[in-house]
Design goal:
Blueprint lengths: L4 H41 L4 H16 L2 H11 L9 H27 L2 H9 L4 H31 L11 H12 L2 H31 L5
Length: 221
């Protein structure tokens, strides 16, 4: 068996191009929406209103208790059966955002709870309302705690976007699949796509470490 280096070089551009135009935008859009949703769900989970807290808890339970692939298929293939038809890209963004929201909500909730209750009292003492205390005092401190797990969620999302190829979203792995189907060199193309994913995640992991060191300067020891 000979290794087809010509195929490796010729396919490198389309695979990286799929990452730039598909994987990375899909990851950024889904994570941004998912993070906003996660904050809302986390606050609902902490709400004294049992109904709101229960709805948020149910959402988190469903997301964490079902596979991402099933969630993706329900949105793209299942919703048309009840008259809701979505294109591949919106379907992928919705599925990934909902998934991130479910997992990140627990991270944010735990980070908020890790802030000493005295911080709430301090905000009240200087005349801040509860929302003002949350935004100006609690969330900045919670953000430092939540950076590592949220960064891990982001890195996992980069890899999870490969599932979008199953609903015909053109991204990194989809391009590799198409080239492999044409050339019949499946091992080479799949290893090459794995290498590109690894490099992206390696860069993100390095950035995560740098961000953690920077935030650690502002934490009292």
């Amino acid at each position: 068996m000979t290794f087809n280096w010509d195929l490796v070089w010729s396919s490198f551009g389309p695979i990286v191009g799929g990452a730039v135009t598909g994987t990375i935008p899909l990851t950024l859009a889904s994570f941004a929406i998912g993070l906003a949703l996660a904050l809302l769900v986390a606050l609902l989970r902490l709400s004294p209103n049992r109904l709101l807290s229960g709805v948020a808890r149910f959402y988190v339970s469903v997301i964490r208790g079902t596979p991402l692939l099933v969630q993706l298929f329900v949105i793209f293939y299942g919703l048309p059966s009840i008259g809701v038809k979505l294109e591949p890209w919106p379907s992928a963004i919705i599925a990934f955002s909902l998934n991130v929201g479910g997992y990140a909500a627990e991270v944010i909730r735990a980070a908020i709870l890790s802030v000493p209750k005295g911080q709430w009292e301090a905000g009240h003492t200087i005349g801040m309302s509860r929302p003002q205390t949350l935004v100006r005092i609690i969330l900045p401190q919670a953000a430092r705690v939540s950076v590592p797990p949220l960064s891990n969620t982001f890195i996992s999302l980069v890899k999870d976007t490969s599932l979008a190829s199953l609903i015909l979203v053109t991204e990194l792995f989809r391009n590799a699949q198409q080239i492999a189907a044409f050339s019949q060199e499946f091992m080479i193309l799949y290893l090459e796509s794995a290498l590109v994913y690894w490099v992206i995640c390696l860069v993100l992991s390095t950035g995560q470490s740098a961000l953690e060191r920077r935030l650690d300067r502002y934490v009292a020891h």
